[in-house]
User: Fold this.
Amino acid sequence: MTNQKTENISSIPIDGFSNLKITSIWTFLMSVQWSEPWLIGLLLFHVVCLFLTVVTCRFYRAQICHFLIIVGLVYSAEYLNELAAMNWRSFSNFQYFDSKGMFISLVYSIPLLLNAVIIVMVWVYRTFSTMTELKTLQLKRRARREKREKND
Assistant:
């Protein structure tokens, strides 16, 4: 029993940069060196995407295009992960790109998917608002028609 427990503890990955045992997503994110220029650029990219998500709320067609681009970028995350895993030395100090894609999922795909969820929530809200307006107009029209029938 103790031997198995020792094997399980030794199988927990240790980050080479900060010597943290990676036991959760939080410790994984804390082990990332966020001062690398490409990670700063990625964070700026996500800020711009969020800004575009908010700005395009008033422009339905632009928001559709933005949504399709976001979905396409998320779809391409696996290919980006493979490409980055092969060429990480040219832009990074550490190999973050594992075969399971945990890093790219956390720092690239999840923020993009959150933008997509925001867009879908805006679309659902608009749909409910339009349906409410339509039902209100139908009830007003029915009330006017009934009023005219009573007057005749």
